[in-house]
Fold each of these.
Amino acid sequence: MTAIAETRKFEAEVAQVLHLVTHSLYSHKEIFLRELISNASDACDKLRFESIGQPELLSGDAELHVDVSWDPDQRTVTVRDNGVGMSRDEIVANLGTIASSGTRRFLEAMSAEQKGDARLIGQFGVGFYSAFVVADKVTVLSRRAGLSAAEGVKWESDGKGEYSLEQFELPERGTAIVLHLKADEDAFLKRWELRSLITRYSDHVAFSIRMPLEKDGKPSEEWETVNAASALWTKPKNEISDEEYQSFYKSLGHDFNDALTWTHNRVEGSQSYITLLYLPAQPPFELMMGGRDERKGLKLYIKRVFIMDAAETLLPNYLRFVRGVVDADDLPLNVSREILQQNRQLERIKAACVKRVLDLIEKLAKDEPEKFHTFYQAFGNTLKEGIAEDHANRERIAKLLRFASTKGEGSARNVSLDDYIGRMPVSQDTIWYITADSHAAAAGSPQLEAFKAKDIEVLLMSDRIDEWMLGSLNEYAGKKLRNVAKGELPLDEEAKKQQEEASKAAEPLLNKLKELLGDRVGDVKVSARLTDSPSCLALSDYEMAPHLARLLREAGHDMPTSKPTLEINPQHALLKRVEAESDAGKAKDLANLLLEQAEIAAGAPLPDPAAFVQRLNRVLLG
Ligand code: ADP
Ligand code: MG
């Protein structure tokens, strides 16, 4: 016989979460109800799924539901379900320890956030603990479906570090969560308050949520269903209002903002399925924290039965911000996860989901530019991953990208590749861009000068992912994409002749610089890129931009170092000065400063900053 009653400590991280929850989550406390109902509904989903193979689990009580009740005398609110329930071991594992990495990310996010907003809690798989935002004691009574009445469990805690556990006779399967409200939380003892919260947050839970009718301020024996209790996605589009779509989104995505837009489709034929896919307006915390594991947000149903969170199976990584439901009619209900992972039908549904989402974003870009802008601010950089990840849709994704540009408005990212192509002269066959650490560094780069002089538009890219993405985007709509800082610029016959003549004329200067700079440079050349600045760096076609190489090196990657090629503008007064300078020391200072300013402009690290400063001061005083 195991111990009948015992007291245990919460795992350290659970205790930390509880501390945060009870001490810093003040706004939107009401979220606890949504979280407990969501858990109750999950428990019903799980039982329905298990009962496919073991129908006896539903015995005598086949209608799954969630009951919400209140007791003004005891000052309790109770959420009860007749779902799958928990055994003693499951209670310990689910409520006392960390099942997912969500808790850790929650702690990180909350410490980053400072001000506590309880609405965040559901996004991290720590929803149960929101009970302690309003309750100073929580009692959980649970009996696992399939176990006997004697194997019920009572779990109780004040959320301060310990919980008690005892065996507890329970006549029915399922779970009841009893909240003993804190002294100042009486608002939740009112039926209309609870009911309006259910309507606001849980209307689209697919099971009935029932409440007792009220008599003399107290719950009566009579119960009514208070939510819509239908699988919204199964209804025809024209019978669903925007409000219904939005409130379904909120309960589905644990989001408290409206969705930006959605696409709802029913496919019939050799394979029948329904997809309802949403674009959120803001990145959920998970995404901002860089959490790429355990993706949630896309639920797979088979014939209305919830099977699993299937975001990994049904959406590529670069669309991980999409939320929604897929309900397939033709899959066997008892499929295992392993089988689902490589199921051909799901492969097809996945391709359809990708197409729907890209259609949706395209439509947004075309018809609702402001919403598209909101979307792009939030998820543009995530979408860019698709350029490398999804070859088949590369052109479609590239079409959706927006950049800052020398012909755009300031740093606003609102120029598409099509805009660029539409403006370029017929003689131009290349889409030019520059990458840098920041918009200012890109916009101010000396490498742009020749392009400005010739009125050629250049896209200004300064998001970290850009350089990496461009590795997979060499062409768009038959036009090459090229970095203005890399390789030889294509020159017309006349310019080529000029360039050759200038190089020849500058030969003594080039040789002088090579000698003065010694090891620090691979080569020194006359630039075709510069009009105003004295110098810049030039990269070979396959070299990585210096700012990115620096980032990677700082992140601990072993990056090959190659000596830079310095390009100069012999017309510039500084180069005239180098040419004329007879003092070897002074000439050396000037030459090094020409190289160093080119390195700074390109975001490359200075190999010896102190020496640079001394040189600069000598020249300033000189
Ligand atoms: P999440 O729902 O994201 O898993 P929660 O903190 O809300 O995180 O719940 C933790 C776990 O506790 C659930 O995954 C589930 O296993 C268990 N649980 C909570 N409430 C119930 C319930 N009413 N019935 C059965 N299991 C539950
Ligand atoms: Mg939950």
Amino acid sequence: MPVEMNAKSTTANTNPSVKKRVFSGIQPSGNLHLGNYLGALRNWVQTQSEYDNIFCIVDLHAITLPVDPKELHNDIRQLAALYIACGLDPQRCKLFVQSHVHEHAEASWVMCCFTPMGWLNRMTQFKTKAGENTESVGTGLYCYPVLMACDILLYQTHYVPVGDDQRQHIELTRDLAQRFNALYGQQVFTIPEAQIRTVGARVMALDDPTNKMSKTDPNPNSRINMLDDAQTIKRKIARAATDSMRLVTFDATRPGITNLLTIYQALTGQSQETIEEEFAGKGYGEFKAALTDHLVATLAPIQKRYHELMDDQRVLEGILKQGAEQARPIAAATLQHVKEVIGLG
Ligand code: TYM
């Protein structure tokens, strides 16, 4: 069962020796957007003092679809800078690039051998991403959830803070871990739980609020990117789909305004009732202006810090090197245990 969290829920444990471990990651595939921020990154920042944190830039996942090498190289650095600019503290979190810890790829092969095809056939994200091309896409896309499971299991993770779209992948991770433990009669892997917020876990596209906001949507107006400037944000929010009712209320039958209100709620931390009262009798124009102000106020300081970090690549490289050095022994210990129980070596 995923742990459902609201913005204020804290089961704080300040004793470092008994802190629970958190692991999560984002693909470096360009255009980190508001959905990634509200569904994942911001939540990692908010709870980083409660947990023993490991956050990864999952570049091996990014090559499951064709990618330009130069772009990938830059996207890895940009994502690292954004992790820190959004507030992750390298003193409190291990921040590293997945391909820098080779145990992920090795564990993934082993785990592929233990993953029934039927389980992967059920993965909805594969079906969405492969679309019509199931015969021509790389097998990496098909095995993607196994690599993700290994990311999590290598670190004996307790909680995986993610957006709603990753639910099925975490369920698969739990199933794989439970099956492996049962097969060998040992607690080789900790069974992780998804940590999914009640607000902001599924930010929808601005142009079509029946689809989720996504990095790969061909329409750039469908998303707010973390590096969009104030004018761009204003324009995109002004264009965002609403309806003809002109009622600023949360209403599942009106997904456009409800999506914008949910973004407002996630940014301000206010209750639905307070927000509806604030905009009672006011039109969509006034609400959209207020939402734009909150977005700009949230993103401007992140962007400033991002540009400072990108100006000094040596600092970034140092943080990523240190993160990989800290992460590797944990991953190596789990992989060694896996190899021993299955008789490798
Ligand atoms: P990725 O890179 O697609 O997304 C990164 C995080 O952002 C969340 N997210 C959203 N949340 C709310 N609304 C949206 N519209 C939205 N779009 C994306 C995602 O849920 C995710 O938390 N498979 C993962 C990466 C991964 C991973 C892992 C995550 C690889 N290994 C291990 C956790 C643990 C992915 O594709 O995320």
Amino acid sequence: MKAHDGMYIGGQWRPARGPDTIAVVNPADEQVIAHVPAGTADDVDDAVRAAREALPGWAATPPAERAARIAALRDVLVARADEIAETVTAELGAPLQLSQTVHAGVPVLVAGSYAELAASYSFEEKTGNSTVLLEPVGVVGAITPWNYPLHQVVAKVAPALAAGCTVVLKPAEDTPLTAQLFAEAVDEAGLPAGVFNLVTGLGPVAGQALAAHEDVDLVSFTGSTAVGRQIGATAGGAVKRVALELGGKSANVILPSADLAKAVNVGIANVMSNSGQTCSAWTRMLVHKDQYDEAVALARAAVAKYVPGERIGPLVSAKQQQRVRGYIEKGVAEGARLVAGGPEAPRETGYYVSPTVFADVTPEMTIAQEEIFGPVVSLIKYEDEDDALRIANGTVYGLAGAVWAADEAEAVAFARRMDTGQVDINGGRFNPLAPFGGYKQSGVGRELGPHGLSEYLQTKSLQF
Ligand code: NAP
Ligand code: MG
């Protein structure tokens, strides 16, 4: 794999300030495929300075012109889709088809939505005798995870650029090559120098330096709740804006009137996609006691289609593989019943985990409370609707969820009572304009669509 040995700062690839590098590993065969520089606080400082210098010019660029640049960026993402998909497959391990449709495809939709929003959004409002100006927050420090390496980047950078902000990105150490490709795309799209800057590096070094930098106005972070809590505290101490997209433990609630087979099949597919490394995955399947045994049989049959190395890829790293296998062992130890999969690795090489289904899971078990981030689904039995709601809402998280019922209105009535930021009704469909983000400890703030754009704006009221 092609890799840059420098940082993209101020519109050019510059040598890193320090000598350290990060090895990028292909999780399917455990081979080192590239090295990228491990950024230091000095690299971050250079990048923030470049973003600060570019800010006045970009903030003053008319929204229609900002929209045209974002549209050009989208076009480069389209033109380079194959290369993006191959890169995501190489460093994340996702099957190529998933990389093409989701990892390369979704960012095109999101970038396109912000090209349109930048052109159509009202950056000025009237209320009574006031005119309210919606102005860019300033320099954005973006810190992203590896699970959707390009989507997570575009979901921050596109709205930031649409708002008139400038950006410094610190991508995940496991997937820096996709981030370098994105920087190439920004360059090719003709964005002014310094509007977007990339510093690859380790979280506790480059990420920490970016989150704590006094000249960053807003920190937008996606990742674990543990790191998010720390970043929120640092931002709070400095009185700066912060957006946190954190973990989830979402419920897939199958009401008794639903098409059970469809709900179980889509539910299994939802968890197995991307090897379970999706923060919004419906990892708890809630089934009425009278349909429970049938649902378990359906789930066992559905998961058999996910053959490791074919339809389902490895996890991103040995560390994640170990972590997920540890959770599976814990599920067994706490008395859940394995109906598919288990802790043994299904292949000798590569960081694979067996697609795993647990039955007889009770709501308080560790596997029903903590985010596993792997191909593991827990089937939980409920007595009645109120019980289902109590279980669905009974974790510290609230990122996503699903409800299935014969009647849409019945599903919506249940969804209204759920403490969560997104609910798919009878399967739903991805909407790049729908706000995405968490209730409770799943985060602060929203991404995507106009709600995502407003995160990067601040208001100034003029009274007449
Ligand atoms: P993570 O350790 O929190 O990492 C996320 C990002 O933060 C990475 O770029 C990481 O760098 C960086 N980082 C780590 N420590 C840091 C620190 N002290 N200061 C500043 N930055 C730091 O998360 P992960 O384990 O890689 O990703 C999985 C987690 O992310 C899961 O919990 C998942 O639910 C969550 N997630 C949430 C969403 C969402 O939209 N809500 C989306 C995806 C993932 P390194 O790569 O060097 O560690
Ligand atoms: Mg990490």
Amino acid sequence: MTLSRRTLLRASGGLAIALPLVSTGCSLSDRSTTTGKSLESAINLPAKYERALPIPKKLRPVRSDDTTDYFEIVQRAEQQEIVPGTTTSVWGYDGTFPGPTIESRSGRRTVVRHRNELPVPTVVHLHGARTSPEHDGYPIDLVLPAGGGGHGGHSHMAGGDISEGQRTYVYPMRQRASTLWYHDHRMDFTGPAVWRGLAGFHIVRDDEEEALGLPSGDREVPLMICDRAFESDGSFKYPARDDSLMGDPGVEEEYLDGVLGDVMLVNGAPWPVFEVAATTYRFRILNASNARRLELGLDPAPDDGFIQIGSDGGLLGSPVTHDSIPIAQAERFDVVIDFSGYDLGDEITMTNDAGDDDMAEVMRFRVVRKAPKPEPIPDTLADLRAYEELKEADAEVTRKFDFDQDGERDGMDMWTINGKLFDVDRIDAKPARDSVEIWELSSDPAHPIHLHQVPFKVLSRNKNDDEPLATDAGWKDTIDLKEGETARILVKFDSYPGKYVLHCHNLEHEDMAMMANFEIV
Ligand code: C2O
Ligand code: CU
Ligand code: CU
């Protein structure tokens, strides 16, 4: 693993200024390096490719009417066998990790009532959703435990819109078909809560997409990839400063850069195997790790590699093929893999070129059935005119956001945006509704940056000769910045007015203040 400049500076102590950075070579900063420190599990690591890939269950609406589908979820602790032979207490939506998959129809309202039976307050955020601020899961809009229990945390949490025991979130779903995910978002404690299991898929469908004849049913598979570590009793290991998650926020100082695990999970199973027919499959890939970046590959690779059909914000205009896909925390890639060129019995490993040893492997596909020749993927997937026509010249304002480590809280280093710690009362940008702005994001070390509410278009990256990457195509809501990189994004604020957050999606950075407010006015 390469060291970030920040780590080098810290390691070199007082000699920071004199450190000859050039000697490390420029390749350091051109790789999307994982920012974080790995935990070591206290159990024997589970064997690879023995467990079948679990598919999260689909949540049925409790009722539907002309305009709306209503869902209910209970957040609770439950024992789950993640590592064979041991049980882990997960905090799950409906007691499962990943949570159940919710499906919405574009244009139909989705209402989800969450009841909190966990011992701590929670907040639900639907990542990628367009909804009004009171339903976006603002970090201090707490849902207090149904069984009673305090607010937890610090005084800077005051002022939120507090609910007792349960809260109903409303999503108008006036947005394109896309792969969203819901996860906990409580102020200062998102990292440990997601680590314990509070994450699930939420898929939006529409007619445009269904007309394409993409692989569906058993051949449309969500893949939630994340790393974890385990204690000797099977529980999740996490270096929280306070294990109750009600007192001091954040992690032990040596994990300030982020928490990595040594077990790779897909849909909650370690290094699983998925049996496929020799045909095409659609995979909705999400990196739900706290701090781990992935660079996915296939070995042996099919002719077309990954055929990317969608990004964070839904289908691309036409497919783009990649040999490997860098996927940072919270990003989604919607891909088709064509297994028709393999023989029965072939095994294809999904690799992670950003990881070492065990973490260099993710899961395996095993070809077990013949299948008729697959339908080709259409050359035109979606009408992306709104995306293509969005031009730099439309922007009236340029704003700069610098992601760095320039502050302190309670004597501990903290992550900052423009040198400032998150403050719920400070608005850092007030874009006008429907206006277009260029946001210039710069980063040290690497940070995956996420904007709530408004999808964006990547305009340029200085580490790629000012061009976007091939994997930046389509609407994005999260962009991974390499160390020392400046990227420019074009954002159209055509959404509900109000206050939303932008933040780093390295969850330890987020919990340690790397968040800011913008208000659409
Ligand atoms: Cu996926 Cu503000 O988060
Ligand atoms: Cu979000
Ligand atoms: Cu960060």
